[in-house]
Amino acid sequence: MDDEMKVGNRFLIRDFAGALAAVQNVKGDTVDGLPKALWIAEIQIKLGNPAAADAAYREAEESLRKTVAAESRRSRAADGLTERYHRIKLAEVCAALGKREEAIRLAEEVLKDSPEILDVTASRGFAEVAANVFGRAGDLDRATRMFRNLLEVPSNVTRFQLRNSPNYDEFRKDPGFAALVMEPGP
Q: Is domain 79-186 classified as CATH 1.25.40.10?
């Protein structure tokens, strides 16, 4: 298994020290097309190192802003899918940094720019990340509604994922979200 795969796998099984070691072994500045700093930030949060996480989030923010700016110029001639993906990940970073208004604005823009009529799979993928953004920005009611909608249509979101992924540890403290994930179903 290559180091990029190890990062995500280690993170999901909550081997955060192993995930950090794996991300540091990845050659280059990206993991799965995203700044390594974003992975490092998420891992440092789980390791209980908020100062290291904050520094890594700021590095990821700078990298994503540059990427989005460059891709915005190119995407006029293409479908803009990659630019929207990086923009929604920038929204996620902004939410983690406490930039609530910007995070919500960016997520809403990506959702508006990605109607299901154009690409159902991409639209629902962006909706999943947007729900995460809204939850991180403090609007867990909106996040829960969005996750409920994604559970009711074909998407990559499952209750198993929402129950178990480290990404949703904080969300599960919310009674509405906790009730959603405990409902019967996959």
A: yes
